[in-house]
User: What shape does this take?
Amino acid sequence: MAEGPSTTLDDCLKLLRGERDEQKLAGLLLVTKFFQSDDHAMVLKAYEAVGSRFLDRLLMTGVGKRPLKGKGEDQAAYLRLSVTVLAALCRIPQIASSVDMISKIPLVLEALSDLLDQEICEEIYELLSLIASASEDGFTKLYESGVVKVLASNICILPDGSKSMEMAIQLVQQILGKVPAEQLLTQNKVEISKLLPTIAKQFAVLHTSLKFDALHVLGTILSFKDAQDVKHSFSRSSQREVWPVYVLTGILDILQNRVVCAEKLRALSLADAMMSIFGEAWLLDYNHQHHDLKRFSVDKCLLLVLETTRVEVAVHLNELAFLKYESGSSSSAEPIHTKQANLALLFSLLEKIIKLICHSSENQGSRVEEKTLLRMIEGLNETTGLVFDFLQDAWDHGERKGDDLLAAVRIIGRYLAEAPSACQDRMRELLGYILSVEGGEEPSPLSTIQFMLPMLCQWTMDIDGCNALASFGGHQRVAEFLARTITHDRRKQDTGEDDGIVLLGCDTLMNILLNREKIRHHVDASHFALLLRPLVLWAECEADRSMMMMASSICSLVFDLTSEEALLDDGHIDSSLIQRLSLLFSSSLQVKVDDVNNLQDLGEIVSSGYRRWSDRFPKLKGLVEDISTGRASV
Assistant: This one.
């Protein structure tokens, strides 16, 4: 009995080795009856017997590159047989990685480009995936042969949730795992934007494992941060009004169901990316008109995203604090870095939600109910308290440096800039520590001060805020930040990028200087002297006279605290700077209040200050008078 099948197999192999194509076709139809596809030895025998040249002819006939011999022959049947045989053979990595198989990729892609037969599509996607997985050469050939372009044209005609759709999305995943994101997106900008609507729809309407495959693909593509022109093409997609809604629907499905933490984080990361592309209002653009989507109210959508983010922030803050301060030397750096990266993502999303709440609160026609906004604000207050706890823990352990601490400072600064009355006691307690926090690669806490300036500007409008900042010399840190920022900007020949931050810093210091007599702590001219030269430089480079008036106002307030002789003796000014200051004050004193809108107060500060301190600055006064009378050239 054992010899029968062996003899029959030998006959099949003889047919496969036959000279005529009819013999080889008959051998292919018979040989599968006698071995399984995982029998590598027999599959290799069959491959060697049939030969690559015949497989080439069979594929070319199926694609239409060779004429059919008989009338009524079905080209699709040849294609189906060809890709079925090739896919079966390529389950053996040794065959899939061969030069012969790799060389067939362009022809297989050509067959796929306009193919409607779903069964053949499945076989082709499996074949391409097997060849690409077997060797680097196979993947390179697949990518360079234009697989992304073919996918973009084919995937849109595949049925939702079909096996062919699943395999197509998995092939996209495979490509994303091999090709650097920047290269893939910049080389295939149009094609990727065509893929997005179909993949987004699968993410929205399916409830199988394919939903998570789609999530991974969308997250990888849309979270790429450096290709702004690519993102612009996403927002101009032909289905611009549809696919962002699909993405939001899929995210809400993930967030409201019990899924593992990693998938929820991916969904939140995708939400952050979508808000970066389409703006924060994307969360409000939920369209209920699509019959194949679940219905979520705008309020439920906002609350679901915010509450999930808040829960994840609380968990990550707690776990990160434990890893850093309580687990001892047993904790490795990798989980800490992972938690820090996740926390940065969550804070980024929170920051966008804060911005969205602010805009919704300011707009009378907002689609968000007032009670929803109040509930969201209560939640943000609670989360801000947890962030303060995290910073308190770091302070207690003597830690001041770290990107996670800097991210925590940033989210606090962002929220309190919009809600300065929130958490005031905690802020007063930790303000000195917060302004000392440095990022992992920073030599000084400049970023911290930048993040906190919008809040500090509002805080110092009140004498309590001035006292809180001056109590530990915080105003000196702001002055140092301004000096470095202005000097750095001008060195880069960037005269406008950070003017908003500079103005916030100037307003903060003006609040301190104007309230200096009420502040309980000593405020001295030396605290601001390093800022004189940068302010003159800033005013000289700005065409806007409001900048000139701001610079001269701060210089005037500083001069109220000292004398020309003291500044010269301490090396804070020299003859060259006096000359430039004289030009600044001469120009400022000649500005008519009515000439510049909303500058009356600054004009008064300059003129009244000049009358008070000019006698203590004889050289500067003499130069200003010479300029005003025409005895000196301006």
Notes: The radius of gyration is 35 Å. Confidence is low (pLDDT under 50) at residues 1-7. Residues 297-441 form a domain with the Methane Monooxygenase Hydroxylase; Chain G, domain 1 fold (CATH 1.20.58). The chain is about 70% helix and 0% strand.
